[in-house]
Design a protein that fits this description.
The complex is a heterodimer of chains A (about 350) and B (about 280).
Chain A (H helix, E strand, L loop, with lengths): L7 E2 H15 L3 E5 L3 H4 L2 H6 L4 E3 L4 H13 L3 E7 H7 L1 H9 L6 E5 L17 H6 L5 E3 L4 H13 L4 E4 L4 E2 L15 E4 L7 H11 L6 E7 L4 H13 L4 E5 L2 E3 L3 H9 L1 E11 L4 H12 L4 E6 L9 H7 L4 H14 L5
Parallel strand pairs in A: 2-3, 2-4, 4-5, 5-7, 6-7, 10-11, 10-13, 13-14
Antiparallel strand pairs in A: 1-8, 6-12, 9-11
Helix pairs in contact in A: 1-8, 4-6, 10-14, 11-12
Chain B lengths: L2 H32 L4 H6 L1 H9 L17 E4 L5 H10 L40 H14 L6 E6 L6 H12 L5 E7 L2 E2 L2 E2 H4 L5 H7 L3 E6 L3 H13 L5 E6 L22 H13 L3
Parallel strand pairs in B: 1-2, 2-3, 3-7, 6-7
Antiparallel strand pairs in B: 4-5
Helix pairs in contact in B: 1-3, 1-4, 1-10, 3-4, 3-9, 5-6
The chains are: A alpha/beta (about 350), B alpha/beta (about 280).
Bound molecules: thiamine diphosphate and magnesium ion.
The site of magnesium ion (MG) has 6 residues of chain B, from strand 4.
Chain lengths: ~350, ~280
């Protein structure tokens, strides 16, 4: 079901979308801090050299300049690696951009461990947490090139600060032709709804088997973990374990309604993220489910530790961000789930 | 100068040059094997690092890496890790056998230096612009403890665009840290192009002067000159000194010299072979 031929890095899609936006709106300006060839803002720089500002290796300065541009009516997109956008320039993002509510789009590439051999200094495992906790900051983690394009365009339409986290590695195509992205909305990728509502499907299942939860396992993922979550669902379904997979690219605001429905109709939620299990998607899911319909939530991601050098694949394996580990975690839980009640 | 002393200086220079060449060969082999890494900025500082470690400048003990009286060396431009790892291995801090594991899963030789894993690595770097501040901290501690050790910090020229570098420059001068020397690897390139085109930090010498530093300018590929200014820097009293070393990014490998493309790209096996052939033919 996954066509490996359509592999593309989310950062490539970002560069192309910026060029589209540049053509449509003369107020779109782009900033970078000496990483334009990596973040792909170089595509915009070639197309619109007058509206591109490479401030040098000076991330804090870049965020401040972006704030000033936004205050003056521009729509600045500021890009660097996630570790520097969220960490190095944290106070500038907080004080100069978010506090006054300026319309700055921070689009950070090289999030997570799939950065690979550069190692821990360059692997942002805390950026979602850092950005999520800033009042009013929208946080989006797209899973593929299409979703990136939709998210970047949505961010441009939205007025206010937005953080978008992108990756270095090529990822497969996941969104289907009819899928859309909306800030605050999650996307059900599994089972395929084919135009029906999730509620209808749940009702059918409740009707035909009132004893069973409509879904044994609900995976909630974002970014590069969406793909292994989909694979895990396929494997588990073949074993008779029913699954729901939600792509929660909009980590903040999160889709509370969808998560409440998922919680009410699943035995367990398993969150999957290329980020620390502290403060990221898993935490966000717990925060909302704990008030709407508390059920067990297993947070999969990087345990309280720094990353390390290695290939993207080796690191995904080492930190358990694989379909086989997702499956195992689900099976282990389901074997003993009754102990929780 | 007496004949014997003169001879020994010549010996030292010869050792620095030979080791710089070995370091360069290691850099090519390591990045090629890893399939990633930063050959350009590693090659540009090979002579500087060789002079520090093999010119009798740094007083260090490979068998006791955390010896309290050691001179401190901070590679603020952490992406030049291959050059540092090669020098440390050549100096005997650890076996050269592990050099080929650079950047591999499970290796202590992380893409950027990790001081918890590698003996001789003073601090963990990789996020640019932070090394000089740590050097200031070590300089202050040296004064507090009345220690004689010196602190050396190697920075990139692009790195000097980070505001923190200038905050540290102000502090070093304020605290009169004559035990601290900064070295700028002035290769005029950063990732996106020529420094002057991206965000011009020049005139760097005048900036440091204005911040109260003793400024020395030198050919960063000439060990004779480097040794001389390092000695001069060590003798300055009452203020920190900075050595602005004019360098060529990719130095020693014809097809890498002055090419921004070689900042963060590994050579293929064929390219590595050619590079090593060139390096071996260099007269030292
Ligand atoms: C804070 C920070 N921002 C960005 C980077 C990404 N980066 C790595 S090397 C580099 C260019 C460095 O240029 P320069 O300091 O001149 O080093 P050299 O030319 O000696 O390699 C950049 C931007 C980084 N490592 N740290
Ligand atoms: Mg440079």
């Amino acid at each position: 079901m996954f066509e490996a031929s359509e592999m593309k890095a989310t950062r490539d899609s970002y560069g192309e979308t910026l060029v589209e936006l540049g053509k449509e709106n003369p107020d779109v300006v782009v900033l970078d801090a000496d990483l334009s060839s990596s973040t792909k803002t170089s595509l915009f720089a070639e197309a619109f050299p007058d509206r591109f500002f490479n401030v040098g290796i000076a991330e804090a300065d870049m965020m401040g300049i972006a704030a000033g541009l936004a205050r003056s009516g521009k729509i600045p997109f500021a890009s660097t690696f996630a570790v520097f956008a969220s960490g190095r320039a944290y106070d500038q993002v907080r004080q100069s951009i978010a506090y006054p509510g300026f319309n700055v789009k921070i689009v950070a590439s090289h999030g997570g461990i799939t950065v690979g051999p550069d190692g821990a200094s360059h692997q942002a495992l805390e950026d979602i947490a850092l950005m999520r906790v800033i009042p009013g900051m929208v946080v989006i983690v797209p899973c593929d090139a299409t979703e990136t394009r939709l998210a970047v365009r949505a961010a441009a339409r939205y007025h206010g600060p937005v953080y978008i986290r992108l990756g270095r590695a090529k990822v497969p195509k996941i969104l289907r032709a009819h899928d859309d992205f909306e800030i605050g909305k999650g996307l059900v990728l599994w089972p395929q709804l084919d135009g029906r509502g999730l509620d209808d499907l749940i009702e059918d299942r409740q009707h035909s088997n009132p004893e069973e939860a409509p879904f044994a396992v609900c995976f909630v993922a974002c970014g590069v973990t969406v793909q292994p979550a989909m694979e895990a669902a396929e494997i588990l379904e073949a074993e008779g374990i029913s699954c729901l997979v939600i792509d929660m690219a909009s980590v903040k605001p999160i889709d509370e309604d969808l998560l409440a429905t998922a919680a009410r109709n699943s035995r367990v939620i398993i969150t999957c993220e290329e980020h620390s299990i502290i403060g990221g998607l898993g935490s966000a899911v717990c925060e909302t489910v704990s008030k709407t319909h508390p059920i067990p939530v297993i947070r999969l991601g990087i345990e309280d530790q720094f990353g390390q050098s290695g290939s993207a694949e080796e690191l995904m394996e080492a930190y358990g961000l694989t379909s086989s580990n997702f499956c195992q975690q689900a099976r282990d839980f389901l074997e003993t789930w009754w102990q929780f009640f | 100068m007496e004949d014997s002393a003169k001879e020994s200086v010549e010996c030292t220079i010869q050792r620095i040059k030979e080791t710089a060449r070995d370091i360069r060969i290691h850099i090519i082999e390591m990045t090629c094997k890893a399939g990633s890494g930063h050959p350009g900025g590693s090659l540009s500082c090979a002579d500087i690092i060789s002079t520090l470690y093999f010119g009798g400048v740094l007083n260090v003990k490979p068998e006791e890496p955390l010896w309290p009286d050691r001179d401190r060396f901070i590679l603020s431009k952490g992406h030049a890790a291959p050059a540092l790892y090669a020098a440390l291995a050549e100096r005997g801090f650890f076996s050269k056998d592990i050099l080929p594991t650079l950047r591999q899963f499970g290796s202590p030789l992380q893409g950027h230096p990790d001081c918890r894993q590698v003996p001789g690595v003073e601090v963990s770097t990789g996020s640019l612009g932070q090394g000089l501040s740590m050097g200031v901290g070590m300089g202050i501690a040296g004064k507090l403890d009345k220690k004689q050790y010196r602190v050396w910090v190697l920075l990139g020229d692009g790195e000097c665009q980070e505001g923190q570098v200038w905050e540290a420059a102000m502090a070093a001068s304020h605290y009169k840290l004559d035990n601290l020397t900064a070295i700028i690897d002035n290769n005029h390139l950063q990732i996106d192009g020529r420094i002057e085109d991206v965000m011009n930090p020049e005139p760097i010498a005048e900036k440091f002067k204005a911040f109260g530093w003793h400024v020395l300018c030198v050919d960063g590929h000439d060990p004779c000159q480097l040794l001389k200014v390092f000695q001069e820097a060590s003798a300055v009293k009452g203020r920190p000194s900075v050595v602005i070393a004019e360098t060529v990014k990719g130095k020693g490998v014809s097809f890498m010299e002055n090419k921004k493309e070689w900042h963060g790209k590994a050579p293929t096996p064929e390219q590595a072979e050619q590079a090593i052939r060139e390096l071996k033919m260099l007269e030292v």
